[in-house]
Design goal:
This protein has 183 residues and is of the alpha/beta class. Helices cover 28% and strands 33% of the residues. A seven-stranded mixed beta sheet has the order 5-6-4-3-7-8-9, sandwiched between helices. The chain is globular and about 40 Å long.
């Protein structure tokens, strides 16, 4: 299907009605944004992915999607633009000897991994995830992808929580977001 790209105002309204909010999840004080309502509405998901393609560089060869919602959104985005898709997974989920990076979170640490030999040197690469909040996971994904000697064209997110300063963690990476939340 080659649906027309909808205007940004329509996409913003669609996301406003298709992103559920859960206060105090997974811990007290956190307002969790759930993309499940968007995912279950085929028309809305298709419209958002089509719009998203207009925000990213045209010459992306690979999308690296961060587990798990970066998979769900990055794979159809890669398909739509004709790029390959590479998963950035949690530790222990990939066979062989994947490249890994441990990084700090607000509540501990985590490790992400990319399959060995999955990104050729010089590949024009875009990092994709559902949400940019504090930026720790995004910065770690960029750093790990750079170990493959790729060209990072940018990072792109469905939602940016502007007040949490995630952009500050990626000062040298061009960023795009479909929907920014300032509250």
């Amino acid at each position: 299907m080659n649906d027309p790209v909808r205007p940004k105002a329509q996409i913003d309204a669609m996301l406003h009605t298709h992103i559920a909010e859960y206060p105090d999840f997974p811990t007290p004080g956190v307002l969790f944004r759930d993309i499940t309502p968007l995912l279950r509405d085929a028309e809305a998901l298709r419209a958002v992915i089509r719009h998203w393609t207009t925000l990213i560089p045209e010459d992306v060869e690979y999308i690296v999607g961060t587990e798990a919602r970066g998979f769900v959104l990055g794979a159809p985005l890669a398909y739509e633009i004709g790029a390959g898709f590479i998963p950035a997974r949690k530790a222990g989920k990939l066979p062989g000897a994947p490249a890994g990076l441990t990084y700090d979170l607000e509540y501990g640490s985590a490790e992400i991994q990319i399959p060995e030999d999955s990104l050729p040197a010089g590949a024009r690469t875009l990092i994709v995830d559902d949400l940019l909040a504090t930026g720790g996971t995004a910065a770690a994904t960029v750093e790990l992808a750079r170990r493959f000697d790729v060209e990072i064209l940018g990072a792109s997110f469905l939602i940016e929580l502007v007040g949490l300063g995630g952009r500050d963690q990626l000062p040298d990476v061009p960023l795009t977001t479909v929907w920014s939340i300032t509250d």
